[in-house]
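Appendix C: a fully annotated inverse folding record. The material below is reproduced so that readers can follow the format used throughout the book. The structure is listed first as tokens, followed by the designed sequence.
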């Protein structure tokens, strides 16, 4: 599980450990404060650095044997309260920020798949789950952020996150077909926004656009992660499982 110390990563870790899985949490953060004792182990690793991943794989294989699942969950976004240069007009959006987001959200998934996916292919079994977003399927609805512009901020939900998350959809299909004969399944899990104490104006705009009428609770994607990592989804590969409160239905 990459990004396992983040908001959703902690939930996924708890859910998988609760079903008897051993979970290796790979995260850039060094806060090793992951719950669940013996079955959860934090490895400090940057998903953009191959040596970090290879080092973590060696330890995992030595202690627990070959990996079975890979949840590519680490990701960078620019939430509504991030620095102005991350949420500026497309015309002036910086190359540096674009590269940083693509590096973690796309190259990180590519590298983790190379290192951990290859280890699964060697033993002929595994499931990779690439965590994407509604903003990788459809464009952000910039009208939701009008409330920011009314207060004078030149706020635009940025392009890099969307581009990076849509790249995962076809990386999923590519690897699903590439590894199908070696027993490694690869799927995308597409999520919508999670409650995190956001600005009430943001919540108002977002939930008005959301058919189900609310943001997701952080634990509402756990069932899908467990499903995709288990044999309950044995016939599923190359797919995109969308859990989005209906966002992409209109
Ligand atoms: N939270 C949402 O509303 C939402 C909605 C749709 C999709 N998603 C996706 O779900 C995933 C998890 O989101 P979250 O809200 O838990 O994010 P988060 O910011 O809470 O956690 C991300 C974690 O990734 C780690 N990380 C960042 N860069 C890394 C790197 N280079 N190497 C290793 N670890 C790194 C961070 O340390 C952090 O622990 C992301 O891919 C995100 O795009 C989230």
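Designed amino acids, in order:
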């Amino acid at each position: 599980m990459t990004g396992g110390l983040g908001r959703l990563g902690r939930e996924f870790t708890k859910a998988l450990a609760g079903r008897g899985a051993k979970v290796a949490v790979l995260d850039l953060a060094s806060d090793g404060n992951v719950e669940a004792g013996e079955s959860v182990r934090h490895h400090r690793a940057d998903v953009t650095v191959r040596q970090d991943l290879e080092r973590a794989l060696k330890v995992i294989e030595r202690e627990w044997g070959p990996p079975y699942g890979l949840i590519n969950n680490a990701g960078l976004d620019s939430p509504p309260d991030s620095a102005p240069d991350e949420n500026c007009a497309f015309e002036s959006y910086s190359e540096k920020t674009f590269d940083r987001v693509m590096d973690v959200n796309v190259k990180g998934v590519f590298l983790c798949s190379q290192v951990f996916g290859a280890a699964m292919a060697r033993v002929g079994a595994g499931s990779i789950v690439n965590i994407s977003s509604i903003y990788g399927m459809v464009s952000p609805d910039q009208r939701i952020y009008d409330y920011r512009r009314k207060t004078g901020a030149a706020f635009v939900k940025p392009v890099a996150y969307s581009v990076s998350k849509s790249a995962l959809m076809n990386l999923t299909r590519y690897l699903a077909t590439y590894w199908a004969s070696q027993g490694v399944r690869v799927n995308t899990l597409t999520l919508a926004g999670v409650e995190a104490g956001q600005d009430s104006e943001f919540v108002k705009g977002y939930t008005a656009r959301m058919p189900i009428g609310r943001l997701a609770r952080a634990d509402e994607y756990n069932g899908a992660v467990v499903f995709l990592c288990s044999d309950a989804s044995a016939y599923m590969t190359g797919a995109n499982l969308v859990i989005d409160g209906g966002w992409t239905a209109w």
